[in-house]
Write a sequence for this structure.
């Protein structure tokens, strides 16, 4: 064989590079990808809502009231509040204040659980079942979708808070906190368009 | 500091012993052998090959179903398949070719090649990769098995309501479709996220975005398309699942629902889907054109923009599947214009390839033959595409065999020919052996001839008014001769594919040993042994142009990354645009938890057919397995 031997020289020394970088770790991008998928699902659901609305002259159907505002509006404030506690927890984690982290995530789990309770009251008070009209179907589907997400965010964050109380997260090992926080912001934030569509579109449009 | 990299020493064959420093690295990256070990593999080379092999098995099975359909249509009023069976065979053929073959095959080839091409040691989330594979394997097998249990869906691959809702399709067939398709899309989505993050963050130092191989660009665009297209089919099939299972009214017109909502949601996915399959194939074609002409591609930037443009415009085309549903004139005009617009981007690519090929000393090996086959077949499909994009013409041939001919030209031309080109091109990479050239060229020629004999007559049948999806036709329609021609062609086509299958089996045992870079290709996938090392690269490279391997053999030197530990799995993370070294990612070891998660998720998805409570069970069941999956690693493994 006549191929020449290729000489190798070192241009990048990776032993100097950091191994634990919670804010630029590929997993952060991965969660962003998951959020993009979920956002696309929400966009499809809300578009379907408007499509069905456009197909029906009366929306909600005759004799059905738009869903009650009280509990949903409370949830609208409780969920962002839980994001604030989550953010506060993340700051604690960045600065290696372990109690702040543990308190913050626990408070978020508590607030989100409270939101779920309010949400359940309000679902119980829906004026229509899912099998009575397409309006009921889409209302229940979107509500159920978001409910499941809050449940899964609570479950995941509950694990994080247990680990936090057990002092697992050192300042180098806070990746789990960072990605959990990102997902939490999404679950809390996405309630805003859902709220506007489900509760205000039938009143305004 | 200067030394020799064994993986790059082009004179070294894969049988040579490796030096000491590589031995530990290879042990660290080893996939455990044995039957139980199989369920713990996470290396992308292993998972990528599994995707590819599984999808080719489904391709063969779905191809046999196609053959069965052609046998039924061999003569008028034939009794080879009864009408119910025909409907199931037709539906499973279409669905399997799209969801179980084409998308997973493209994902598989991306999963196998992208880390190699960007010089990474593995993908960003190896366990998620494994999870996606098991989901696909279990979902796909369940879907296909339904055919043999007589439980298969029978409403066509796009499963239109109201035919597919509970009033008109009793039994479990449609439920199998809705649950299993949703489930398999989960696997496509995990692969998409995986590919995007790997491409964004794990490129070797120096591989800025404008030095990325076109193939990697194509996979990136495909992954983004999956990300935004798949959610609509998931939403659509979730709605249909609920309509059938818990009596929601999404698609029931009397109850305020809308059957057209299904069509919008389905085609908002379904049209980009075609391009999800096509775009990676364009990447394969470009790779092969570059290697077999031994010159840089003409118009790199234009080509990248064309691929990105196709990705974007393809989301504005879905309504051209719905011209006959009574759309407003403005809507029809908009989508007709958008459909024609895609020809601009496709044209840019074709001209880039022609300019690259022009005057070059082309090496006409089998992969290049398949690429030439792609040009012929795909351009013919593109021409009929321009025809059906026009509203008046489309309304004439809608739901006829003309459309069947058109999309087989586009899909077989646009995906199968490039995929087979890629198979012949990368087979030596994955196995260390070359496929037989003579058999390969015969196979290509027979496939090309068989394909045209099968599908070209369908254009005429369609113009003569033969509707698609009919299990038979009457003798007085005068469609017999063309149908017979088509059926004979399908046998020739099958023989062509069988020849490649035989070539693969034969070459695995007796094929000639391949040198590390048999085609003298310029990309990093060839800068390691064939088959690749467990760790892919003994040393990760540092690149300075679009054609690193050509540079190295010209200059006789190359830059590498040093300082990665060999006692755990590490790969370099770089910045998104310029690929400057940023950090090091520690990748996980083999684990069985993704498999357990996939099994639990499968049981719950399948259970949905019978009871909605499986939804709740699924949420909690998979959560438990995820906790074990993500259970924090021991302190010494992360610090």
């Amino acid at each position: 064989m006549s191929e020449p031997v290729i000489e190798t020289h070192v241009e990048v020394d990776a032993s100097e590079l950091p191994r634990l970088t919670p804010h630029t770790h590929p997993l952060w991008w991965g969660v962003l990808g998951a959020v993009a998928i979920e956002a696309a699902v929400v966009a499809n659901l809300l578009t379907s809502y408007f499509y069905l609305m456009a197909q029906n002259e009366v929306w909600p159907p005759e004799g059905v009231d738009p869903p009650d505002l009280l509990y949903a509006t409370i949830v609208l404030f409780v969920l962002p509040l839980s994001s604030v506690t989550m953010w506060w927890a993340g700051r604690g984690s960045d600065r290696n204040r372990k109690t702040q982290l543990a308190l913050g995530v626990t408070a978020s789990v508590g607030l989100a659980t409270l939101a779920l309770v309010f949400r359940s009251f309000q679902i119980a008070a829906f004026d229509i079942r899912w099998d009575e009209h397409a309006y009921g179907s889409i209302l229940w589907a979107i509500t159920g979708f978001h409910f499941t997400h809050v449940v899964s965010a609570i479950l995941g964050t509950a694990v994080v808070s247990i680990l936090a109380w057990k002092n697992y997260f050192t300042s180098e090992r806070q990746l789990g906190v960072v990605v959990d926080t990102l997902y939490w912001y999404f679950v809390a934030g996405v309630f805003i368009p859902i709220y506007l569509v489900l509760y205000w579109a039938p009143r305004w449009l | 500091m200067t030394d020799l990299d064994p993986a790059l020493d082009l004179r070294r064959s894969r049988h040579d012993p490796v030096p000491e420093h590589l031995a530990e690295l290879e042990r660290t990256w080893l996939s455990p052998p044995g039957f139980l070990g199989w369920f713990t593999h996470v290396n992308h080379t292993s998972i990528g090959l599994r995707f590819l092999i599984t999808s080719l098995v489904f391709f063969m099975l779905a191809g046999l179903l196609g053959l069965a359909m052609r046998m039924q249509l061999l003569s008028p009023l034939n009794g080879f398949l009864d009408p119910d069976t025909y409907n199931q065979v037709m539906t499973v053929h279409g669905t399997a070719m799209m969801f179980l073959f084409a998308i997973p095959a493209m994902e598989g080839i991306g999963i196998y090649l992208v880390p190699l091409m960007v010089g990474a040691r593995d993908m960003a989330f190896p366990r998620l990769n494994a999870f996606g594979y098991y989901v696909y394997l279990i979902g796909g097998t369940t879907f296909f098995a339904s055919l043999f249990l007589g439980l298969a869906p029978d409403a066509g691959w796009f499963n239109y309501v109201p035919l597919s809702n509970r009033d008109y399709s009793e039994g479990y067939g449609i439920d199998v479709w809705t649950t299993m398709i949703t489930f398999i899309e989960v696997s496509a989505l995990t692969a998409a996220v995986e590919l995007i993050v790997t491409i964004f963050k794990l490129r070797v130092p120096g591989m800025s975005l404008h030095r990325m191989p076109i193939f990697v660009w194509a996979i990136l665009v495909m992954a983004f398309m999956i990300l935004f297209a798949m959610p609509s089919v998931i939403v659509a099939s979730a709605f249909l699942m609920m309509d059938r299972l818990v009596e929601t009214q999404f698609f029931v017109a009397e109850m305020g629902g809308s059957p057209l909502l299904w069509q919008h949601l389905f085609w908002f996915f379904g049209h980009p889907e075609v391009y999800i399959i096509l775009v990676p194939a364009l990447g394969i074609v470009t790779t092969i054109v570059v290697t077999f002409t031994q010159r840089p591609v003409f118009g790199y930037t234009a080509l990248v923009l064309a691929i990105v443009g196709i990705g974007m415009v393809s989301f504005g085309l879905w309504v051209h599947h719905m011209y006959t549903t009574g759309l407003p004139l403005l809507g029809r005009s908009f989508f007709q214009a958008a459909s024609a617009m895609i020809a601009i981007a496709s044209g840019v690519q074709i001209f880039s390839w022609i300019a690259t090929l022009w005057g070059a000393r082309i090496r006409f090996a089998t992969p290049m033959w398949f690429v030439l086959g792609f040009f012929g077949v795909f351009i013919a499909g593109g021409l009929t595409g321009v025809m059906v994009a026009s509203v008046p013409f489309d309304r004439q041939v809608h739901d006829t065999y003309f459309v069947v001919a058109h999309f087989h030209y586009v899909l077989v031309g646009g995906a199968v020919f490039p995929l087979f080109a890629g198979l012949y091109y990368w087979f030596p990479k994955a196995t260390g052996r070359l496929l037989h050239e003579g058999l390969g060229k015969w196979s290509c020629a027979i496939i090309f001839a068989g394909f045209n004999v099968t599908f070209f007559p369908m254009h005429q049948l369609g113009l003569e008014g033969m509707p698609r999806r009919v299990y038979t036709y009457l003798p007085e329609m005068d469609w017999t001769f063309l149908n017979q021609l088509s059926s004979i062609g399908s046998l020739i086509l099958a023989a062509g594919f069988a020849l490649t299958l035989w070539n693969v089996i034969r070459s695995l045992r007796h094929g000639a040993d391949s040198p590390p870079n048999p085609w003298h290709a310029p990309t990093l996938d060839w800068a390691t042994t064939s088959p690749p090392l467990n760790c892919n690269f003994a040393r990760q490279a540092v690149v300075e142009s679009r054609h690193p391997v050509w540079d190295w053999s010209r200059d006789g030197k190359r830059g590498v990354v040093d300082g990665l530990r060999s006692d755990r799995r590490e790969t370099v993370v770089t910045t998104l645009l310029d690929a400057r070294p940023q950090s090091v990612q520690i990748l996980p070891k083999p684990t069985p938890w993704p498999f357990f998660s996939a099994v639990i998720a499968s049981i719950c998805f399948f259970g949905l057919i019978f009871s909605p409570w499986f939804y709740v069970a699924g949420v909690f069941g998979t959560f438990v397995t995820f906790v074990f999956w993500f259970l924090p690693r021991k302190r010494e493994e992360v610090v």
Observations:
- Chain B touches chain A through 77 residues (CB under 8 Å).
- The longest strand of chain B covers residues 557-562.
- The longest helix of chain B spans residues 83-117.
- The mean pLDDT of chain B is 90.
